[in-house]
Amino acid sequence: MIYDKNYYLETFNVTEEMLRRLSAEGLDRGGDYTDLYFENTTYNTLFLRDSEVSSGGFLTDYGVGIRVLKGEKTGYAYAESTDYSAMLSAARAAASISQGPSLSRGGELADSQVAKLIRDAKDRAATYTPIEANGGRPMRRFFQGLPNPAADRYPMQNEWRKAEIATFIPYLKSLEAAVRARDERVVKVVATLSACQSDILMYNSFGEMKYDTRPMGTLSVSVVFSKDGKIENASASRSFMKGSEMLTEAIVEELAEKVTNGIDERFEARRPKGGKMPVVMAAGASGILLHEAMGHAFEADFNRKGQSIFSDKMGQRICPEGIYIVDDGTMKGNRGAVNYDDEGVPGQYTYMVEDGVLTSYLHDRISAKYYGVTPTGNGRRESFRYAPLPRMRNTYMESGDARAEDLIASVKKGIYVDQFSNGQVKIGEGDFTFFVKSGRLIENGRLTMPVKDINIIGNGPEALKDIAGVADDLKIDDSAWTCGKGQSAPVCCGIPTVLINNLTVGGE
């Protein structure tokens, strides 16, 4: 949702002149760039346990974070108030952290000083890298213009803030009833509704002002099943950047079907014999392996610091022809969608791999300046208390031209996996390990025995090289994926059915 500019100025009790002055204060000690990030977020949560909605919560988070960049140094400070004196202290603290004593020797900046500091900072930014460094392609330095409500990627029909929270209780009860109706082995159901709505206002020393209101709703369910003394657990969720209109009987039925589907196989599943073998990753949630094992290694801060296995591979072939890997901030209503990232850069559709060649990292403003390229809209943060970092949004591999059944049929002996959890990745080496929640053996081209309690072990670059086939069935998984990188960010992932040769399966 994008309201009028004055809504955001009034929400944070600021004026454009105050924003200009705070930006200039950040520059006053020699800074190259200042940005301000205002946030007003309300959270609502409801929990259903033992057939009763017995608890919930409400929280408001409000404040501003101020960042000052000077060369390779970053100063960051925040205030949990938008009183001008509190913001001024934060701006001066960030400036002090980034670079030395005040150039103006304290006191209030004169109007002429404010104008000169901002003009000089913009002039420096306009010339920091020649266009030739990017192959002669023009690079966007600035992102002027106000947000366009007609281009909003998360419009709300019904605001979470304006809804009566008690009206959502029937959806939780309906979800439990739908789960129990599908399987008599259900012994416990926990259903949760989480909703938040964030007003965001961003301003920087280039004079760019961006703002929007970001909704997020998540409906999730966890179920315990019991049969002949054995226990199995399953969970499912759906999360969207939408208002309360996302709650429908259709989403309730979808979750109930998802969380109960395949439980017969879970009870029958066994650990297979381990070893190195082909692995077919099912479309959808298997995209978490792509996110963790490859996506993080494409984030530009890891590459700028030489910490990623892909740091020296830009422009090189890293997987077979015909493979395209995307990080997409443009999918309307998607959990990873952004009108603007948390630096005020427009959300984009970014190819990291094109036809098997590494063509772009995921950039914030800092890494884009270092590489002499345009930011990709991947500067994201958990809240106003954190400085932005290059982070993924909605990461997936585009469809290929194979059929899923043909990929399975091509495998004499291997594993088919459809749900992962508990992944670990070493960014520098590219090594990864993922725990498989469910899957099946592949024997002579057919899916046979259900399997569980196995690990998939491999190396990101090697796994990319070993892709033997990509199906035409891309599926985006709309579960409540949250990415951790010292701070949390909502993300999404997806993948078509993919055959990878020579992964290690940790089994019997």
How would you describe this structure to a colleague?
This protein has helices spanning 5-11, 16-27, 84-98, 111-126, 169-182, 249-260, 263-268, 287-295, 300-304, 365-371, 404-409, 460-465; strands at 33-49, 52-70, 73-79, 186-204, 209-227, 230-240, 275-281, 325-328, 349-354, 357-358, 379-380, 389-390, 394-397, 413-425, 431-443, 446-451, 454-459, 467-470, 475-477, 482-484, 488-490, 492-495, 498-506. With 508 residues, it is α+β, with helices and mostly antiparallel strands. Strands 3-2-1-4-5-6 form a 6-stranded antiparallel beta sheet. It has a 6-stranded mixed beta sheet with strand order 10-9-8-13-22-19. The chain has a 5-stranded mixed beta barrel with strand order 7-14-15-17-23. A hairpin with a 2-residue loop joins strand 5 and strand 6. Helix 2 (16-27) runs parallel beside helix 3 (84-98), helix 2 (16-27) packs across helix 4 (111-126) and helix 5 (169-182) packs parallel to helix 6 (249-260).
Which blocks of ≥5 consecutive residues have pLDDT under 50? none
DSSP helix fraction: 10-25%
What number is the mean pLDDT?
92
Distance between the termini: 52 Å
Portion of residues in beta strands equals: 35-45%
- What is the number of helical segments per DSSP (H or I, 4+ residues)? 12
Can you give keywords for this protein?
six-stranded mixed sheet; six-stranded antiparallel sheet; alpha+beta; 12 helices; 508 residues; 23 strands
